[in-house]
């Protein structure tokens, strides 16, 4: 009799667990699937999709891609993203950066001349003794400019973690 009660209880528990599983994934996403990457078409680009102060995974609405011939990414490692957009009338660069583990991507306009803008991309350094995951993320970071980008070239470079 006790054996039957255990089997019935276990079956009820499994039924509840499977009924509740999957309610946290977006509609239309099969169980066990990986969510779409942030650069796939159809994903939201609204700034409201990412609260202020949080890493942005999508490009802000209304941003304009910078043409590939206006991006000099020769100083970046081969695996680093090379995506740049302008926003706010060209006074903000939205750049797909790379970060991992406990680090967070940073960017600043290190030099601004009449023909180019040099953007220094780096990452915060993990605290000593802190355990970190070994993942790589590709957030979009915003870098303000003193004047609109217009026809200037964006030069991307990296520096060691800070």
UniProtKB/TrEMBL annotation:
Region of interest called Disordered, as start-end residue ranges on this chain: 24-67
Signal sequence extent: 1-21
Keywords linked to the UniProt accession: Signal
Ranges of Polar residues composition bias in the record: 36-48
UniProt-listed PROSITE patterns: PROKAR_LIPOPROTEIN (PS51257)
Annotated protein name in UniProt: Uncharacterized protein
Species per Swiss-Prot/TrEMBL record: Amycolatopsis australiensis
């Amino acid at each position: 009799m006790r054996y039957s009660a255990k089997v019935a209880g276990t079956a009820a528990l499994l039924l509840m667990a499977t009924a509740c599983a999957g309610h946290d994934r977006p509609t239309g996403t099969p169980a066990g699937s990986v969510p779409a990457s942030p650069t796939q078409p159809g994903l939201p680009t609204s700034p409201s999709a990412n609260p202020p102060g949080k890493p942005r995974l999508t490009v802000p609405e209304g941003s304009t891609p910078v043409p590939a011939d206006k991006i000099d990414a020769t100083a970046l490692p081969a695996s680093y993203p090379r995506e740049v957009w302008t926003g706010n009338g060209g006074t903000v660069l939205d750049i797909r950066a790379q970060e991992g583990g406990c680090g967070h991507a940073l960017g600043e306009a290190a030099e601004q001349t009449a023909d180019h803008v040099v953007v220094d991309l780096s990452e915060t350094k993990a605290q000593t003794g802190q355990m970190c995951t070994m993942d790589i993320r590709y957030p979009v970071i915003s870098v303000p400019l003193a004047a609109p980008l217009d026809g200037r070239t964006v030069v991307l470079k990296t520096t060691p973690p800070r």
